[in-house]
Amino acid sequence: MSQGLLLDPGDWKDDLGCDETVRYHLDGREILTGNSHVKERSAKMATRNSGDAVGGDTETVAGASPGAPVSKRPARDRIFETARELFYQHGIRAVGVETIASEAEATKMTLYRNFPSKDELVAEVLREQERDYWAWWEEVTSCCCTDPRKQLEAIFDAFETKACNADIHGCPLSNAAIELHEENHPAQVVSVNYKKELHRRLVELTQGAGAQTNDLADALMLLMEGAYISRVTLGVGGPVRAVARSAKALIKVHLDGC
After folding, report:
1. Angle at the Cα of 51 (from 48 to 57), degrees rounded to 5?
2. Does residue 55 surpass a pLDDT of 70?
3. Closest CA to 64 of 6, 106, 23, 24
4. CA distances (Å), 92 to each of 15, 50, 126, 172, in order?
5. How far are the Cα atoms of 33, 85, 240, 244 from residue 165, in angstroms, in the given order?
6. What's the CATH number of domain 126-256, 1.10.357.10, 3.40.1390.30, 3.20.20.120, 1.20.120.80?
7. Do the domains at 5-115 and 126-256 have one common CATH topology?
């Protein structure tokens, strides 16, 4: 095994109040998690850590060779984008701040200067993922004028395409809610509020389409949540490929009575 960076023991106990049971060995390309080898996307990392700075901290990591190129991107951006990718790919509890700082070509001191704790970093990542999801939602529904039924069908058509993407590992906010089930955890609060808003929007659309109760909204939300899990466990060839058809069948039964 190539020589790389092993996390210091102090990083095993993270801000989530749990011992990290996974050690990481980093050589810039691999993270070793138990018996599995997860290939990191070196090209993506290189792209993320390049470009012009737009403000904020920039730094040279201790131990870097004098001739090595220095990233121009603000350290906060590098840390945030690295955390977002690693949390989604490997899980929140499995990734420590030492790993994030190293992969972002930053230091733990810089990480904590920009984010008060790992908990707050996780919450901020989830807020950004929620904003991205609602931007996607607005883009999809804006293509269907103001017809709520057509908007519902368009959402599930687009959702099926989105869920079958090769990089999908489930809903990041659902994943976080499962990992961080402490009621008052800042990231858990973000996840729960997001799900409440998703249900509210489905209720609004289904009632706008003519539903008299919340039954259709409930069924569509359960379908959406289940589709994510099916995608993770059974892949693109599993039931997720039928999520749009299933949604349209539910809509037809509830609104047309047949």
Report:
1. 85
2. no
3. 106
4. 11, 25, 11, 10
5. 24, 16, 11, 15
6. 1.10.357.10
7. no
Q: Are 4 and 28 in contact (CB under 8 A)?
A: yes
User: 198-216, pLDDT tens digit by residue?
Assistant: 999 999 999 999 999 999 9
The pLDDT of residue 71 is 55
C-alpha to C-alpha distance for 222 and 245, rounded to whole angstroms:
15
- pLDDT at position 199 is 98
Question: What is the per-residue pLDDT for 182?
Answer: 87
H helix intervals, 22-96? 42-48, 75-90
H or E, element range at 5: strand 5-6
Q: Which residues pair with 5 in a beta bridge?
A: 26
Average pLDDT over all residues of the chain:
80
Question: pLDDT at position 209, please?
Answer: 97
Letter for the amino acid at 9?
P
- The CA-to-CA distance between both ends of the chain, in Å, stands at 62
CB atoms within 10 A of CB 147: 14
* 3 state DSSP class of 6: strand
- Predicted pLDDT of residue 33: 36
Q: So where are the chain's domains?
A: 5-115, 126-256
* Rounded distance between C-alpha atoms, residue 246 and residue 257, angstroms: 15
How far apart CA 156 and CA 138 sit, in angstroms, is 13
CATH architecture of 5-115: Orthogonal Bundle (1.10)
Element (H, E) at 105: none
